[in-house]
Design a protein that fits this description.
Keywords: Glutamine amidotransferase. The protein is an alpha/beta fold. It is built from 7 helices and 11 strands. Helix 1 packs antiparallel against helix 5 and helix 2 crosses helix 3.
């Protein structure tokens, strides 16, 4: 089998390494089968899609909707690299799964409106399959409604015509979408468990995801419902596209 590629953007080692371990756990991929590139560390370079079975994108600190003057040089470089890569991915309908930051990258590439209208506090919420989601092979076997980890400063307000809505939420309408037949992005975090998201909560305290003095309440919020189904989405993607 050709390896999968994980594109990561977290600068902090602990959450970055935890994210890689979680992707391994939920995909079932060994280290040799999941190649990680930390894009924040340096230029991505040329990516030959023929070398990989598919691409995963993890979460990260960058917000697509930030004004250009507030974006760091690293963020601008990463965004440009994603735009170029997605030109090829979308044109070929190449297997791609963007978790969290996938909404910012793929959504921006497709012309979605992304802003803070539907920002979500860090928590666990119930989300629901659309009819198109219920028919999608990567979501096969998922219950009609399931719990998922969320927590974002921005989200898609207007989905572009090229995208198919697969999972919706009450407070944030676009939770998962597909472009073509093989290119996916989620707003929620299918790569997380309670321990993983708790690590991120502690590391990113003071980064604007919750207020001062709200650490304990935020840690409790991610335990309000059991999250038991979302990781299987990554496993089904891997099984479908591993080759």
């Amino acid at each position: 089998m050709k390896p999968f590629l994980l594109l990561a953007t977290r600068a902090e080692d602990r959450p970055a390494d935890d994210e890689y371990a979680l992707f391994q756990r939920f995909t079932g991929l060994a280290s040799r089968d999941l190649v990680r590139v930390r894009m924040e560390a340096g230029p991505l370079g040329a990516i030959d899609l023929d070398d990989y079975s598919g691409i995963f994108v993890g979460g990260g600190p960058f917000n697509a909707s930030d004004p250009p003057e507030k974006k760091s040089a690293v963020q601008r470089r990463v965004e440009a690299e994603f735009a170029s890569l997605l030109d090829d991915v979308v044109a070929r309908d190449f297997p791609f799964f963007g978790a969290c930051y996938g909404v910012g990258t793929l959504g921006t590439h497709q012309g979605a409106v992304i802003d803070g209208t539907f920002r979500e506090p860090i928590s666990v919420i119930d989300v629901a399959l659309t009819p198109e989601g219920a028919a999608d092979p990567v979501l096969a076997g998922m219950p009609e409604t399931f719990a998922a980890f969320v927590g974002h400063k921005e989200a898609i307000t207007v989905l572009p015509p090229s995208a198919t809505l697969l999972v919706r939420g009450d407070g944030c309408p676009v939770q998962m979408f597909r472009v073509g037949q093989n290119v996916y992005a989620t707003q929620f975090h299918p790569e997380c468990d309670v321990e993983g998201i708790s690590t991120r909560i502690r590391v990113y305290a003071g980064h604007g995801y919750f207020g001062e003095g709200e650490l304990d309440a935020t840690l409790e919020a991610v335990r309000r419902l059991p999250v038991v189904h979302t990781g299987s989405i990554l496993r089904r993607f891997t099984e479908r596209y591993g080759r």
